[in-house]
Design brief:
The chain is α/β, with parallel strands linked by helices and 492 residues long. 38% of the residues lie in helices and 22% in strands. Helix 5 runs antiparallel to helix 6 and helix 11 packs antiparallel against helix 12.
Length: 492
């Protein structure tokens, strides 16, 4: 056997199932960390195009996002990936107007206060609600066990503030129900802030000492600046695919997974099975559960227990001269207690100027989520009717849009309900039975783009460590076999 053939036969093969931002980021991290070039990588994506929910459409001069419209620029892993892909010059930070955020309450939009003192003159809360909010430093200690986001907020800042401020944020970020979602799983930083500082006010003061609030920025706004790309969020996906090349295969539906002698066999539709030394499961939790069911039924059951919330996104374009009020902010969120079906409305062309034709504006409304799953059953006309009626109520817009585009996400956003971290621990315990098998994606350790990218590096490191271990064992067996053959040959 030639040296070249021997080197090729000793290479390890890693299959990544799922071509969303998580799977593509893991594949990129595998290649970046594989200094010895000892592995081959294959990414399998079921749909005709990679990217998952990150998809940008350019229609009639409008830039419409299916899902996320950017990432916070305070995430070093994401910024490093952008630099590595050569996309720095393509970044588009959100406009300064995006610092202003609103909440719909009692029939009108209220700006989110910029600090504790601003709540005094705000109409967001009643006077009793404001007094209760001011008592936050004296809130009772955290109870034992997992705590819902709403229970945490009620305990710290009172029920009214929890219903108005926190509920709207949770429905806007997760499309979720604050009464069901786990604080520690969804907002681990907030959990640690209470642990480290003993309260939110003290934590806020400490945070602002380290990161002064920018002028006009709403209190509680996330650290970092929302950032996208000039042609939309999908530029990141295209950059990853261009770097990975032909290792990304689309239109491949994975049917199942088996294991034998420390290797895996990936069954696909209409194709021969693919053998792999390691497999990264980066598809949605329900799809992953289906794939591993025959291999490990308990693991599949654990993944099946992670719920999702479907979403409907409606993009509406208007001539700017037809609107009576300026879109001078990020948009607004709606507490569920207000009785509207829209979870929130983003003023996309204000957040990212250039997302609408000159003289026009683009709004993006979200419906559905965990509290309104029936929204997915609305047809396009019904969606437009609901959105128009509620835009009139919240913003006074009573004109027909010039442009409409509707997207549906049946699986939507994973819901980290109470017990999520325990489910994740059970899944990891099952994975320990299958060295070389790993989970990645937004169903586990963070739903945002930044979380998926940050998770890619440690996942890749574990997979490469497994591959290196297998290679060492294989090499040792080969040396032992070769050492034994010589003496037997001599004696013969």
């Amino acid at each position: 056997m030639s040296d070249t053939t021997a080197a090729r036969s000793s290479r390890q093969h890693v299959v990544v199932i799922g071509g969303g931002v998580a799977g593509l980021s893991v594949a990129h991290a595998l290649r970046a960390q594989d200094a010895s070039r000892a592995i081959d990588v294959t990414v399998l994506e079921r749909s005709p195009r990679p990217g998952g929910n990150i998809r940008t459409e350019h229609i009639d001069g409008y830039v419409c996002e299916w899902g996320p419209n950017g990432f916070l620029d305070n995430a070093p892993d994401t910024l490093a990936l952008v630099r590595d892909l050569g996309l720095d010059a393509r970044l588009q930070p959100s406009d300064d107007r995006a610092r202003r955020r609103f909440i719909f309450r009692a029939g009108r939009l209220h700006p989110l206060p910029g600090g504790p003192l601003d709540f005094i003159g705000s109409g967001l809360l009643s006077w009793s609600g404001k007094v209760r909010l001011a008592m936050e430093p004296f809130a009772r200690a955290r109870p034992e066990g997992d705590e819902t986001i709403h229970a945490f907020a009620t305990r710290r800042i009172g029920r009214e503030a929890a219903d108005v401020l926190v509920d709207s944020m949770v429905s806007g970020v997760f499309g979720g129900n604050a009464h069901d979602l786990s604080l520690r799983a969804c907002f681990p930083k907030m959990w640690h802030l209470e642990t480290d500082h003993g309260g939110l006010v003290r934590a806020l003061i400490a945070r602002r000492r380290q990161h002064p609030r920018r002028h006009g920025e709403a209190m509680g706004a996330p650290l970092g600046r929302l950032t996208s790309f000039r042609d939309g969020a999908e530029e990141l996906i295209r950059g990853l695919v261009a770097r990975l090349g032909d290792v990304v295969r689309t239109g491949v539906d994975v049917q199942g997974l088996t294991a034998e002698h420390g290797r895996f066999r990936v069954g696909t539709s209409g194709d021969r099975p693919i053998d792999a030394d390691a497999v990264v499961l980066a598809s949605g939790s329900a799809t992953t559960a289906r794939i591993v069911r025959a291999l490990d039924a308990p693991l599949a059951a654990t993944l099946d227990a992670i719920p999702t919330a479907g979403m409907v996104v409606a993009c509406l374009g208007y001539g700017a001269h037809r609107l009576t009020s300026p879109l001078d902010g990020f948009g607004y969120l709606v507490p569920r207690s207000e009785g509207l079906r829209t979870l929130g409305v983003l003023w996309d062309s204000s957040v990212y100027p250039g997302r609408a034709p000159r003289g026009h504006v683009l709004l993006r409304a979200m419906l559905g989520g965990a509290t309104d799953p029936e929204a997915l059953g609305l047809d396009d006309a019904q969606v437009v009717s609901v959105v128009r009626a509620e835009l009139q109520r919240a913003m006074g817009i009573d004109v027909t849009p010039d442009f409409v585009r509707i997207f549906r996400h049946p699986t939507g956003i994973p819901q980290y309900t109470v017990g999520h971290l325990d489910r994740l621990a059970r899944a990891e315990a099952r994975l320990a039975h299958w060295p070389g098998l790993a989970l990645a994606g937004n169903a586990y350790r963070g739903v945002a783009i930044n979380a998926c990218i940050a998770d890619a590096s440690p996942v890749a490191a574990r997979v490469l460590a497994h591959c290196a271990s297998r290679a060492a064992v294989t090499a040792g067996e080969g040396q032992a076999s070769g050492a034994g053959a010589g003496p037997r040959g001599v004696s013969a």
